[in-house]
Amino acid sequence: MQLSKITLLKDARLGILGGSGLYNIDGLENVQELNIKTPFGAPSDTLRLGELGGMEVVFLARHGRHHTITPTDIPYRANIWALKSLGVSWLLAPSAVGSLQEQIRPQDMVVPDQFIDRTHQRPLSFFSDGAVAHVTMADPFCPNLARLLAEEGGRLMPEGRQMHKGGIYLAMEGPAFSTRAESNLYKSWGCSVIGMTNHTEARLAREAEIAYASLSMATDYDCWHESEETVSVEMVMNNLRANASLASKIVRATAAKISTTRPKSTAHHALKDGLMTAKERVPNETRKKLDLLTRPYWGHFSNQ
């Protein structure tokens, strides 16, 4: 479906990026599947528009619905651009992580508030080819959105499992899990969890002026915890299945809160003071590619 033909999606305001084990979202009603073309290639999968928690929601499986895309190969820019094109203003990102701290047990959940980036093969910006922008990433997650997510998650956590508010997400390249030396290093830095996707999404979401928050679902103790068995795909998948149903409930409850509170975010005007290049100096092809993002500040681009 071409963007110009989409006429009913102006109220599709909440985006959900499903990670490992969460390839759809329970309770999504009146679903339409949309193929969105972007200047940055095809998204990971079709985008599913539906209703959840009293508002319109766009769901996308970041690895594809059959988990066919590695963390490095996820088309991050296409995914965020497509969500932005459908009017998404808030973005929730459930994802599997390893725990780097004793108190964060497998099947606990974390709503982090900081990142450390150890990736090295990712496109980290929409801006290049003659256009430069610098957005602030001091607080990479939206505090208001993260607060709602943590509150709803804490209310729904069953006995014996805990919601941790705040923490540092260590982003690694993958797809292999950490060495024991790496895991112990990241633990010594005070990092809370380790994952492979959220940092890249958060940086691009900030450039797209979308508020972003992560629901990090602990599946294991990475490999630093020598009294626990070494992390394996089987272990991860077993805990993912235990987390998936609860994550859907938390996302649905958070969607209901967002539908009534419409939380404000500094992310919603992140480009206002971030655009460095004068629009007259930007090549037409680049202006065209970035028009969806820069239109509020540079005006609608037309090369006719």
Give your account of this protein's structure:
With 304 residues, this protein is an alpha/beta fold. It has one domain: Rossmann fold (3-Layer(aba) Sandwich), CATH 3.40.50. It contains six helices and eleven strands. Helix 2 packs across helix 5 (233-261). It is globular, with a radius of gyration of 19 Å. The two termini are 24 Å apart.
Explain the layout of strands and helices.
Blueprint: E1 12-18, E2 29-34, E3 47-52, E4 55-61, H1 76-85, E5 90-99, E6 109-111, E7 114-118, H2 143-156, E8 163-165, E9 168-172, H3 180-188, E10 193-195, H4 198-207, E11 211-220, H5 233-261, H6 284-298
Helix pairs in contact: 2-5
Please report the number of helical segments: 6
CATH-derived topology: Rossmann fold
Taking all residues together, what is the mean pLDDT?
Answer: 90
- Which class in CATH terms? Alpha Beta
CATH superfamily: Nucleoside phosphorylase domain
Spans with pLDDT under 50 lasting ≥5 residues?
A: 1-10
Strand element count: 11
Radius of gyration: 19 Å
Distance between the termini: 24 Å
Q: Report helical residue fraction.
A: 25-40%
